Amino acid sequence: MDRQRCRTLKVLENRPVGQSEPASRFFELVLEWPGWSRWTPGQFVMVRPDWGAELTWARPFSICRADERGLVVFYQVVGRGTERLARVAPGEEIAVWGPLGRGFAVEEDTPTLLLAGGIGVAPFVGYALAHPAPEKLHLVFGHREPLARYPFAAFPAPVAKENWHEQNPGDLQSFLARVREQVAAHAASGLVLACGPLPFLRAVQAMARDTGARAQISLENRMACGVGACLGCVTPDADGHRVQVCTHGPVFWSDAVNLDPEKPS
Amino acid sequence: MSAPDLSVRLPGLTLKNPVLTASGTFGYGLEFSVYGDLASLGGFVLKGMSLAPREGNPMPRVAETACGMLNAVGLQNVGAEAVIREKLPRLPWRETAVVANLYATSADEFGELAVLLAARPEIAALEVNISCPNVRHGGAAFGQDPEQAGLVTRAVKDRAGKTPVIVKLSPNVTDIAAIARAAADNGADMLSCINTLTGMAVDLERRTPRLANVFGGLSGPAIKPVALRCVHQVRRAVDLPVIGVGGIACARDVLEFILVGAHAVQIGTANFTRPDTAFRLPGEIAALMDKLGIQSLDELRGTLKA
Ligand SMILES: Cc1cc2nc3c(=O)[nH]c(=O)nc-3n(C[C@H](O)[C@H](O)[C@H](O)COP(=O)(O)O)c2cc1C
Ligand code: FES
């Protein structure tokens, strides 16, 4: 068994992506290669800079890519943790444990639809790079910020990709209509994978239910430990049992989880 | 100078070192076995278990706070029988102390749990949780009333046979010494303190509580001063070994609790901060003792000049 799964890794790069006005809040963090023997796209890492006692938890990030160049995650500055992370300089060392959880299914011969909302595009970069038949992949990407702030250009050429920039009211509906069309097109013999904000995942879940498509969705619940111990990240499964997203997911078959808001019991 | 002696002798139980992990922060141990050798710990306390499975409280159940966190997990667990069947056989119980943490809503139910768990060779001790702030029945209610605390302690002790009984105290009381005395008078072999402090956090923009349960239990470095105070008071009130819990994150914290009179400690929230925290501690404690010229924990224990 690999006993070295919590490592202290050196930061190689940590810089905003697509810098322009107003300042980009999207960052690419490159860490030295952790020497993993294997990982699956869709898995995540817990990351904790040496930021002192005030911020108690590490932060979970999906793995964007991992190769000899290093371990790469994309993140958006949204709160105290990511604000502090954005200030970490190259050369500093941070604690990293992973790869954690269950990643996306890879089916070589199956046309696979990648549905990404916002920063949810990150794990699909590694997915596409590792896929044995990238020409089978079709990415539909919806985003609010300028395209240059996301790792959209990093997809290998054989991947069919389209992006939908949400700027005006109504754009979201056109994007969702396109998503629905593609889910339906992949329903009979394809595979649908989705990563993005919860309302988007709910929509994809409903489309998969309606069309009978096989779909997987990646959840991003609040996490304290990332290893299944704190029971803080749970989501109800199809039978109503609360299961840990960090170990049973973060990627679930869409009919295996209930994404409706929980009512207090 | 020879390597410092980290062993701890407790009633019915000897630990190779004073580092245990706290209930609810270390799963069933197995979750952490890739981050270190479970057998290198003094012991670990299993997630709180009840007779019947419990689904716990709705989400969100955890919130990060300054130097700590709130949780309102509400004792979600698979039930004692499933723990016995599925988890215990996989634990390295011959090499380290596996402690069962018990939760029930009546003294009778506590007794039933004690019968089930004390019969298991894998279980080195029972820890009675009369201090959980996140459940509506039982939980902290038992830990806030000396009479109830005494009844529950007695119910467990009478059915535990030779298995030592640890009673886990709540800081959410006016007089923790009174509860400690009640537990001691009713057969507790040891006490652990503390469980979490009741607290809350709110979201100003949304005008909502951060936990679905509104209240939760505060843990982490923020509560260490409270835990030290409780250990100090309890040690003065009763002549039982105390296991210190609350905000312990490094070797210095551990030795501070020993100085105040604790026999051993439990590491809780620090397991989330870094999953190998507990595994690194025995070595770091030995190094710090070496530096301070302390040969054994016995030599340090309870020597606070106060
Ligand atoms: C997420 C979480 C779950 C917990 N579950 C239990 C439990 O099931 N039984 C129990 O006796 N204490 C439970 N506790 C309390 C801890 O065991 C410990 O007493 C407390 O967290 C203080 O220690 P710390 O500051 O090192 O975390 C839990 C604490 C946390 C943070
Ligand atoms: S984050 Fe702790 S159980 Fe999933």
Can you identify the CATH superfamily of chain B? Aldolase class I
> Percent of residues of chain B in beta strands?
15-25%
Architecture (CATH level 2) name of chain B: Alpha-Beta Barrel
Tally of contiguous helical segments of chain B: 10
In the CATH hierarchy, the third-tier topology of the largest domain in chain A is known as Rossmann fold
Radius of gyration of chain A: 18 Å
Ions and ligands: flavin mononucleotide, FE2/S2 (inorganic) cluster
The radius of gyration of chain B is 18 Å
For the largest beta-sheet of chain A, the strand count, sense and barrel status come to:
7 strands, antiparallel
Q: What string gives the helices and strands of chain B in order? A: EEEEEEHEHEHHEHEEEEEHEHEHHH
Brief summary of the model shown:
With 265 residues, chain A is of the alpha/beta class. Helix content of chain A is 18%, strand content 31%. In chain B, a hairpin with a 2-residue loop joins strand 5 and strand 6 (68-71).
Task: Report what the structure shows.
With 265 residues, chain A is of the alpha/beta class. Chain A has two domains: 98 residues, Elongation Factor Tu (Ef-tu), domain 3 (Beta Barrel); 107 residues, Rossmann fold, CATH 3.40.50.80. Chain A is built from five helices and 15 strands. In chain A, the strands form three sheets. Chain A has a seven-stranded antiparallel beta sheet with strand order 4-3-7-1-2-6-5. Chain A has a six-stranded mixed beta sheet with strand order 10-9-8-11-12-15, sandwiched between helices. In chain A, strands 13-14 form a two-stranded antiparallel sheet. The N and C termini of chain A lie far apart (40 Å). In chain A, 46% of the residues are buried. The mean pLDDT of chain A is 94. By secondary structure, chain B is of the alpha/beta class. Chain B has a single domain, classed as Alpha-Beta Barrel (TIM Barrel). In chain B, 31% of the residues lie in helices and 20% in strands. An eight-stranded parallel barrel of chain B has the order 3-4-7-8-9-10-15-16, surrounded by six helices. A four-stranded antiparallel beta sheet of chain B has the order 5-6-14-11, with no helix packed on it. The mean pLDDT of chain B is 95. At the A-B interface, loops of A face strand 5, strand 6 and helix 8 of B. The structure holds flavin mononucleotide and FE2/S2 (inorganic) cluster (FES). The site of FE2/S2 (inorganic) cluster has 12 residues of chain A, from loops.
